Amino acid sequence: MFEFDIFREEVLTDYTKKRNEGTLPTSLENPSPANLRNYASNKYRQGLSKEDRTVFEEYFNSNAKVDDLEKAIRTTDLGRLKSVQNFLNGTTKIPDEIIVKLVAVLIDFSPRPFVEWRNSFQHLQHGESKASNDSENSQMHNNVARSQPVQDTLVTKPTKKNHLNKILAISAASLSFAAVGYMTSSQLKSDGCMYWDGAQYVKIDCKEEIKHAEKLILDPIDLIHFKKITQTDTLQEEHVNKVWYSKINNEVEFFTSAGRHPLHKERTLKPATWYMIKKYKGSNPTK
Predict the structure, then answer these.
(1) Residue 39: CA atoms inside 13 Å, Cβ hemisphere, count?
(2) Using one digit for the tens of pLDDT, what is the confidence trace for 47-97?
(3) Could you report the per-residue pLDDT of 137-190, keeping only the tens digit for each?
(4) pTM assigned to the model
(5) What's the DSSP call for residue 272?
(6) CA 66 to CA 58: how far, in whole Å?
(7) In this structure, are residues 226 and 175 in contact, taking their beta carbons and an 8 Å threshold?
(8) Distance of CA 199 to CAs 3, 237, 263, Å?
(9) Cα 5 from Cα 7, distance rounded (Å)
(10) In which order are the strands placed within the sheet that holds 193-196?
């Protein structure tokens, strides 16, 4: 379900953003299975909405083996929470849906639950679809409220800035089209593999041998939207928090979407501030 893919990406992006800003509880900044269980128990004692309680019931007590939900949380096997940790750390790209829903509750993601997020998302698409053909693109670009990944391209001066802004708008539109069925079925399939070629992910057959690159399970979101920004001099103040960066061994790289560094999986990308963009944009970002 492609809508859930977008929901999953937004939940993880929200977690990464809050962690980078230092607004998460310590238990979630370091999401070990024990910390996750303790935090879930505390969250339950503080009180849950009906919808959040349903998520907790499904994850911690799906078989109704325990009458007391709090007891079910406290006695949950820590090994089971490893899958939640792996999702938050970026080790698992496509976890079970209940894990994403649980994380949404733990980090206080909004809007939630998923059905409310989907209604909001579909309402947004419905409003956009009423725009006239002449103004459809501009209306869509103005109305999409969610921060969508920027798409980079190799362009020549003097049109670099305008072209990057145009691609930013097209990227937002592409996710909107996908949600209402405009994206082809081949793009939505999660079967297959991919590898990082230094600038973007490339889809390959899982049987194909790749030298000097790690073969990964295909992620349709990253395949389409996660790219390295090679023309960093096109970045402007308007791209603050719309592109992400890493600084590893004094080398700064900018990317079009949130997540983990494609070669250094232990490093989480950070939303780019105007300070970082001003300091490191240009043809020689290594400082």
Answers:
(1) 22
(2) 999 999 999 999 998 777 667 888 999 999 999 999 999 999 888 878 899
(3) 444 444 443 444 555 443 334 445 555 555 445 444 444 444 434 333 344 444
(4) 0.49
(5) P
(6) 12
(7) no
(8) 26, 23, 11
(9) 5
(10) 201-204, 193-196, 216-217
